[in-house]
Write a structure and sequence with these properties.
The chain has helices at residues 3-25, 33-40, 63-75; strands at 44-52, 59-61, 79-94, 97-110, 113-128, 131-141. It has three helices and six strands; from the N terminus they run ααββαββββ. Strands 2-1-6-5-4-3 form a six-stranded mixed beta sheet, covered by helices on one side. β4 and β5 form a beta hairpin. With 150 residues, it is an alpha+beta fold.
Length: 150
Amino acid sequence: MTADTSATIRADRAAIAEIVRVFFAAFISGPDGTTRLDALRGLFLPGAVIVKTCGGEPTVYDVDGFIAPRQALLAGGTLTDFREWELSGRTEVFGDIAQHFCSYAKSGVQDGTPFTGRGMKTMQFARTSAGWRISAAAWDDEREGLVVTA
């Protein structure tokens, strides 16, 4: 690997890390929540697919179908003090594709009841003329018999 290649990979990983940071920062209740969620649209390719598994039949969303219910939930007042954050992750880059796999945690108060949780997310990226964009994302949460170990 040449110094130029190494510098490019570091720059790619830094750009992807920033996208991951903005992604998780969108999921915080309170002021500017709508603005943060609206910013998610710019992180995704227009035809991106987002998949929630969490122990049931997978739910598949397009970008707007993913953002709209979360915007309603975070702004609706029944979910307060909510935030979601990355615990640890790794990014692999090859040419114009990349993958970020990470553990995450969340906490909040839903209808007056505090809760916490953890899970794993995977995000796939494609390099575009405008920079890296999320082409797909999926997540699964801890539950009986499935525990985050990372």
